[in-house]
Amino acid sequence: MSLRDGPFGTVKVPLTWTAAVALIVAVVAALAFLLGDRRETLRASAYDQVRRAADTVTKPVGEGLSAPVRWVGGIGDYIGSYIDAAGENRRLRIQVAQDNQWRDEALRLREENARYRALMGVKTDPPIPMVFARTLTDARGPFSNTRLADAGSDKGVIEGNPVLAEHGLVGRVTGVAPGVSRIMLLTDTESRTPVMVARTNARAILTGDGGPTPKLAYLRSHDPLVEGDRVTTSGDGGVYPRGLPVGVVVKDLDGGWRVALDSDASPIDFVQILLFHDFSQLISKAQLEPKTLPTAMTEEPTTAMPVPPPVKPPPSSAAATAAPKTTGTGPASQPSAKTPAKPASKPGELRPAAAKPGAAKPAAAKPEAAARADRARQGTSLKPVADAARKPVAEGAHKPTPKPAVPAHKPAPRPPKPAPDQEAAPF
Amino acid sequence: MPANVARQLNPVRWLGGPMLLCALATLVLTAPIRVGGLQLPEPVFALVPAFAWAMIRPSILPPFALLLLGLYMDVLWGGPTGLWPACLLAAYAPVLLLRNILAGQSFIIMWVWYAAACALAFGFGAYLLVLDSGAMPSLVAVGWQFLVTAALYPLAHTLIERYEDADVRFR
C-alpha cells in the first residue's frame, strides 16, 4: 500500500511551510558546524578527517589547475624576455654596478660581525630543517586566506610549522594530510602572530583581517613607530622562531599601524615549511644532558683540607692576647679549631691602615685642605678607604663592624693612639 | 492543467546543474592565477543559485543544497566550517519570504535586490566572524568580494528566466 492510498494521502502540507522548516533545519545545522569549528587552534584534532580527505582530493585537482597557469606564465615570460632583452640588459648592468658596492659592504660587515660574535661569545642558531613545497590553491576571500601546499605529514610537516616564501614569512600550517598541507596566511582573519619591531624591540600581535596588510594590535612601545620600521617575529609563545622577516610598518588611514608583508613582493608559488617544533631544537642536545659531577668527598675536614703547620707560640704573655689571622678570607670571628691562632706579637698587623703610623705618614704631611682637594680630584673619600682597610677583617661577617674584628672572647689589643695630625689621613 | 506540466521541474536540472557549475567555477578560481601581477577576484558563485532558487519556487531541497555548497566552500577555502552555509542561507531566507513582492520586477530592480541579498550574506558572514574569532574583517576586502559577486546577477537572471515558469503553481 502506497502512502497515497493511506489515511494521509489526502493531507496536503503547504509547500511554503515545509520549505521554511527545511530552511530552519539547515540554518541550525550550519550554526552547529560553525560552533564546532576550532580552526584557529593548533590541535591536530581540530583539523578533522573530512578536511584531510578533502585536501587530499583537492591536491591533484589543484595541481591540474595550476599547471596550465604555470605553463602560460612560463610562455609569457619567455616571449617577454626576448622582446625586452636590450632594455633588461641595460638595467642589469646598472644593477650589477650597484650590487658590487653592496657586496663590498656585505663583506666588510660580515668580517666585522664575525669579530663581534667572537668577542661576545655569541653562538648562532642552528639551522632549522625545512621542506620545500609548491602552492596549489589559493583562497583569497575576506573570511579566509589559506593555501594548499604539496608537502604533508609524509615529509614531517606538522600543525604549527612556520611557512616562508622567497622574501619573508607567509603564515603557518594549520592542517596536514599525507602529501598535502593547509597554510593559514598572515592575512587570515584568525591569524595572530607575535612580532617585534626590529628598531625598538616593541612587541605587538600581527592580526589578520582578510586584507593585504594585517594590523599591529596590542602594540607595546615607549618609542613611537616610524613608517618603514622592520617587523620580525618575536618568538613569543614558541610558535615561530625569533627573527623571521615579516614586513615593514605602514600607517593606516585611521591612524593605526599595519604591516606591508615582505612575502607580497613576489608570487607565493614556492614556499619553505620550517620543521620547527619548539625552542628545544635550537639548543644542543648535549648541553641538555645532565652533566656528570665529580664524586662527592665525605672525609673529615681535618684530613680533606690542607692544614698549615702549627706555629709554636712564643713563650711570652702575648699568647693570652692571640688574635686570628686577619689576612685570610674567612670570618674573623671563626678561628680554626685545629689551627693554633697566630699570636699577635705585633699589634700593628691588626690595625686599620689609617691607624698605621708608618703608612699614614706621607699623607699626614700634607695640610688638611690639600688632602681634601686631592680626595675631591680623585673622587675618593676617607670612608671607602677606611672600609677597604677593614675589609679583610669584616669580610664574611653578616654585619660590617666599624672596629677591627677580634675574637669575641679575647680582648683586642689596644692600638697605639695616632698623632692628631694623622687621624684624617686617607693613607 | 495537466499534472505533468507542474512536474516538469526536475530537481536534478534546476538544483543539481547549477550546484555542480558553482562547485566547478569555485574550484577553478582557487588556482593561483595572476594576470599582470594581480590576483584574480574570487566571487562567491553560490550566491547566484541562492537567489535564483528562492525566486523560482519554495522547496525543501534548496536549503540543504545550499548547506552542502557552503560546506564545500569552507573545506575548499579552508575557512571556518559552517560560515558559508550560514551566509548562503542568510541570503536565501529573506528572498524566499519576499518572493511574491520581487517576482515580475524589471531586470535592474532585480539586480538591486540581488545585490541587497549579497550584502546581507556578507554582512552576516562578517558578523559571525566577529563572534567566532573576535576579528573584524577588512571592509575593503569584503567590499571587493561583494562587488565581484554582485556583478554575477546576469547568471542568476538566466537561471530564473529558465525555470520560473516551469511550475505554474508558483507563478
Name a few traits of the molecule.
heterodimer; A: 427 residues; alpha+beta; six-stranded antiparallel beta barrel; six-stranded antiparallel sheet; 8 helices; 31% helix; 17% strand; disordered C terminus; B: 171 residues; mainly alpha; two-stranded antiparallel sheet; 2 strands; 69% helix; globular; disordered N terminus
Give me the count of strands of chain A. Answer: 12
The total domain count of chain B is 1
Structural class estimated from helices and strands of chain B: mainly alpha
Radius of gyration of chain B: 16 Å
Give the quaternary arrangement of the chains: heterodimer
Number of strands of chain B: 2
* SS content category of chain A: alpha+beta
Could you characterize what this model shows?
The complex is a heterodimer of chains A (427) and B (171). Chain A is of the alpha+beta class. Chain A is 31% helix and 17% strand. A six-stranded antiparallel barrel of chain A has the order 1-2-5-4-3-12. In chain A, a hairpin with a 4-residue loop joins strand 1 and strand 2 (145-149). Chain A is extended, with a radius of gyration of 40 Å. Chain A starts with 14 loop residues before the first helix and ends in a 33-residue tail after the last helix. Mean pLDDT of chain A is 71; it is low at 316-367 and 376-427. Chain B is mostly helical. In chain B, strands 1-2 form a two-stranded antiparallel ribbon. In chain B, helix 3 runs parallel beside helix 5 (83-97) and helix 7 runs antiparallel to helix 8 (139-150). The longest helix of chain B is centred in the C-terminal third of the chain and has 27 residues, at 107-133. The relative contact order of chain B is 0.16. Classes of the chains: A alpha+beta (427), B mainly alpha (171). The interface between A and B is large, with 60 and 55 residues.
